[in-house]
Amino acid sequence: MHRRPGTTAFARPQSPAAKCLHLIRLRRARTRPELIEATGLSQPTITRAVTALINAGLIRARADLAVSEGPGRPTTPLEPADFPAVFVGAAVGTSSTYLGLYDAEGRRLRDLDLKIKVSEHEDSDFLEHLVAGINRLTAGVDAPLGALGVTTSGRVTERGIVDAPNLGWHGVDFAGRLRYHFDVPVTVSAAVPAILGSETQSANLPAAGDEPPRTLALFADDSISAAVTHATGVTQLSSLPAPAPGPGLPTTAEERLSTQGFLETVAAAGLGTMSLEDAVSRAEHSRELRALLDERARLLGDMCAALIARHHPDTLVLAGSALTADPRAPRTFAKTVRGRVGNDVELRMIPGHREIVVAIARAVALDKLLRDPVEVADGVTAAA
Description:
Blueprint: H1 16-25, H2 32-39, H3 43-56, E1 59-61, E2 78-80, E3 86-92, E4 97-102, E5 108-114, H4 123-138, E6 145-152, E7 155-156, E8 161-164, E9 169-173, H5 174-182, E10 186-190, H6 191-201, E11 215-220, E12 224-229, E13 234-236, H7 253-257, H8 259-268, H9 276-282, H10 287-311, E14 315-319, H11 321-324, H12 329-341, E15 346-349, H13 353-371, H14 373-383
Parallel strand pairs: 3-6, 6-10, 11-14, 14-15
Antiparallel strand pairs: 1-2, 3-4, 4-5, 7-8, 8-9, 11-12, 12-13
């Protein structure tokens, strides 16, 4: 499916209707004059966008709250309407997949967890489990499905083709398969762009002509990936700096710094086979394990320092068990980054796995609606 420029996953609102919906949904602007001021768009453009959103059922005018401020027409507040559709977001994890059901304002209506170890299933089998989970989540809901989204590890093309080696997926067309099953707009994204997408969906629009703040995100867990925001949206980085070489050690960030890669390094050092949680616990009494954990945190810090020097972000957002499972890792990581690039970049960590999956499932569920609100609303109407 062809996408217009600027409409890739988690793009900032581009169309007048998308900008108006964004501001009204976040209560950053409630009247037409406020929308004109916030967007820099002309009065006729805002009028057309607001009319389209009202006709689509996404917003409503509150004539009962109109305020007269001198000659001319009263100022009528606008607010989100009770749009008659629901949206599903799925965050696929190595051993558990989170599903959330949302209304058009992003309020969570239901959720459930599918306890499935993905790598033990063929991709087609996992898809059947996912479809069954979505059907279970929406069962009995008196509203059509407006759109759905899925996040996963690895890399995802703009067409929704997934390569996630840690899940055993190579060239999997998840977007196409889900459209076949549900016949609604589908967004498939890697997890790390969705982390930034969640933030841009709740952030104010930059003023006309202003460059929005740039944010870099690192996801360090069962896979390693990074993404950066830019003027029009979010881009996953195609390559990551290689960690410092060592004799007999893997040379890529994914092979060496992912949880699987780290645990393979632990086993190769003769320290046994264990989980990351076991390694952190045993490191209290093992200098060798403590040294390996510290080295992982330092190497992640070195990698992020190189990315900061390349992309010049204002903020670095960190997520994943590499930094949350080990209480000492954040301090070691931050000391490494500060030693390389100074204190100009704000460091912010998402504290736990649950917070990540909830945020990215919501972001990917609403992605298509927030980019193309009138198109999604028209699709819901046509299917009714």
